[in-house]
Amino acid sequence: MSNNRISVVIPAYNSEATICMTLDSLLDQQRTPDEIIVVDDHGIKPVTDVLGDRYPDVRVIRHETNKGVQYARNTGFSEVSGDYIFFLDADDILCPEFLKVMLGALEENPDAAAAFGSFYKCFDGNAASFLERHREIPPEITVFSKPEGLTFYLNNTGAFIPSFSIFRRSALEAISRDGELFSTKLVSNEDFQMFARVVAMFDILHIENPMGVYFLQPNSISRDQAKIWSSRADAVDSLIEISDDLKLSGFHIAFLKKMRASAARLYARVLANNGARKQASEHLFNEFKRSPEIKTLALMFLIFCGLQKKKIEYGGAEY
Predict the structure, then answer these.
(1) Hey, which of 118, 183, 305, 318 would disulfide with 210, CB 3.0 to 4.6 Å?
(2) Residue pair 74/180 in contact by the 8 Å Cβ criterion
(3) Alpha carbon distance 22, 34 (integer Å)
(4) The 3-state secondary structure of 79-103, one letter per residue
């Protein structure tokens, strides 16, 4: 292992129930981090009060107002000193070998800008069963070149999340614009948009064996389906707008346009399922004028007539 440093940024907001668990898993790593920055996004109870004197080497930065996770990550990124950057959420758990495996893979593949790890999904808040059966095994590493990586990611957007992804700082600096790494114009999907920019511009690695537990909390933004799909459409639009800068192929631009239309329809379905049929119909009408598609027209008809009953399943719940 080289002498390259790893900096960890943890955005935290009202995370007192989980942040110590997350920090313990981070400090128990076989390859420990060189720098840990927690950005307290003005939660009700300050993170410093939660941590006390248990973690003397952890630096805490507190926002004066609540701004959102993208702002917290940007604040942390502006303060890091490491060669590798890791954005870890304050409610996820790492297996002990995670950092060692991820950094080892990046050291062995110097052309790769990022390593994306797999993870266990936990919906009930009980990680014990995952951790008990977990065993360290030789990593299964797939190397994706620039066009292959983007195709894989757009087909598998849920496979890469911040808590299990490590980036070369140089790559993140290359895609940052006006001091922003994560877009503050998006209310959600800022991580999807940032990841897409990375995989469009650089070779990447995918480590396929899970090495951590991703928690989906009942009040998680991941459960706010209306916000997710509305913002996904906005995020895709922003990628299409910078397609020249990202050097996207015609195939990928067409893929993004289909993804945008699909997100718009999913947003309308969530609205209709929540009783907002008029708003859903108006949304689809505007979407059809923007990009005429038979699927959009068909869904608009079903919703207008009250015939759209299909729910969206996510994390054991229906929306």
Answers:
(1) 118
(2) yes
(3) 16
(4) HCCCCEEEECCCCCEECCCHHHHHH
In sequence order, the 6+-apart residues with CB closer than 8 A to the CB of 283 are 264, 267, 268, 271
Band (pLDDT 50/70/90 cuts) for residue 314 is low
The answer for residues whose C-beta is within 8 angstroms of residue 287's C-beta and 6 or more apart is 261, 264, 265, 268, 296
- Cβ atoms 315, 223 nearer than 8 A: yes
In the structure, how many helices (H) and strands (E) does the chain have?
A: 13, 11
Amino acid occupying residue 206: H
Contact between 38 and 60 under an 8 Å Cβ cutoff? The reply is: yes
Strand partners, 112: 203
What span, in angstroms and rounded, lies between the C-alpha atoms of 91 and 132?
19
Question: What distance in Å separates the CA atoms of residue 86 and residue 169, rounded to the nearest whole number?
Answer: 9
Q: What is the DSSP string of 5-23?
A: -EEEEEEESS-TTTHHHHH
Q: For the stretch 21-32, what's the b/e string if a residue is b when 16 or more beta carbons lie within 10 angstroms of its beta carbon?
A: bbbebbeebebe
| Cβ contact 215:92 at 8 Å | yes
C-alpha distance from residue 119 to each of 170, 210, 305 (Å): 25, 4, 42
Sign of the dihedral through C-alpha 44, 94, 196, 318 = negative
Which H or E run includes 167?
A: strand 165-168
The Cα 15–Cα 60 span in angstroms is 13
Express each pLDDT in 10-50 by its tens digit: 999 999 999 999 999 999 999 999 999 999 999 999 999 99
What per-residue confidence (pLDDT) applies to 102? 98
Q: For the purposes of burial, counting CB atoms within 10 Å of the CB of 251, is it exposed (0-12), middle (13-18) or buried (19 or more)?
A: exposed
DSSP letter assigned to residue 305: T
Sign of CA dihedral 87, 90, 92, 97: positive
